[in-house]
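Is this the right way to post structure tokens for a design question? Let me know if I should format differently. Anyway, here goes:
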């Protein structure tokens, strides 16, 4: 009887540990869902600990990790092509957003990044 109780306790502890861990970010390419009319879709690609993507005008790259459901971006850099003022402002806002540690979740192949009242949604690409 005591062995059965110990096994049940260990199983319960294992299930609790698994349930409390945040979902791992799947590697791959993600494309922005529903960009504003006239805007090119943003994209993000995650491979191991490296992040890259299209940020509205240029390409960006840097390191990343996920810590307790928060995307932590480090050493973010980008190419330096000139675009319209609107595209440059959008890009600057998105790059700042990425560096401000947004909450990250993956819901049915949709990557959701949220910080305060800003949200970006990206769909996994095949």
């Amino acid at each position: 009887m005591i062995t059965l109780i110990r096994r049940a306790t260990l199983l319960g502890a294992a299930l609790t540990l698994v349930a409390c861990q945040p979902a791992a970010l799947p590697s791959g390419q993600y494309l922005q869902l529903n960009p504003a009319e006239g805007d090119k879709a943003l994209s993000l690609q995650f491979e191991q600990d490296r992040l890259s993507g299209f940020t509205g005008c240029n390409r960006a790259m840097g390191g990343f990790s996920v810590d307790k459901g928060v995307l932590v971006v480090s050493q973010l850099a980008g190419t330096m092509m000139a675009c319209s003022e609107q595209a440059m402002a959008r890009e600057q806002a998105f790059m700042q957003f990425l560096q401000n540690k947004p909450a990250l979740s993956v819901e049915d192949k949709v990557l959701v990044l949220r910080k305060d009242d800003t949200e970006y949604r990206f769909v996994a690409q095949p």
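Format looks fine. Someone answered above. Worth noting: The chain has one domain: 23-124. Helices lie at 2-20, 85-99.
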